[in-house]
Amino acid sequence: MEESISLLAAIRETFPGKQQDIRSYSPLTLAYIGDAIYDLIIRTVVVERANRPANDLHRITVRYVSATAQSRIVEALMDRLTEEEQSVYRRGRNSKPHTTAKNATTADYMKATGFEAVLGFLYLNGEMKRALELVKEGIGLAGMEL
After folding, report:
1. pLDDT of residue 18
2. What is the pLDDT of residues 23-57, one digit of tens each?
3. CA–CA gap between residue 112 and residue 25 (Å, rounded)
4. Residue 107's pLDDT band (boundaries 50, 70, 90)?
5. Which of 86, 98, 112, 145 is deepest in the core (most CB within 10 A)?
6. How many CA atoms lie within 13 A of 92 on its CB side?
7. Where are the beta strands (DSSP E) in 65-128?
8. What distance in Å separates the CA atoms of residue 142 and residue 128, rounded to the nearest whole number?
9. Which strand (E) or helix (H) includes residue 48?
10. Mean pLDDT of all residues in 80-85
11. Residues with catalytic annotation?
12. What is the DSSP letter of 95?
């Protein structure tokens, strides 16, 4: 049986390149990867819970991946974030994105961007366990159990 390695380690092994200090990444770059990580976490949980038609899976997933939902989650988590995570969150929340919220307020969109920046930061630092812990705890604290 093959040894299990993290997704990040497998990607870096398969596609080697120059590693950059994560703290030097722009908050929107962190949010960009964090958005994908958050989406992957939620989709994985939804698929693991039941083998359903794709339309049903999508309907369940969008309840959690919207800017409004992410804003609720990060608000519930704020006092549980480390100082470093709070700093990354503020940088993400205060960034100037080149897109606008489709179905959310600007405030919710910016909070969601901050949350995604934190998840991107944790992922790129190899701290997926912490990212998963925050997502699970945030969903619970926001009263949005999956």
Report:
1. 87
2. 889 999 999 999 999 999 999 999 999 889 999 99
3. 18
4. very high
5. 112
6. 32
7. none
8. 21
9. helix 27-49
10. 97
11. 35
12. S
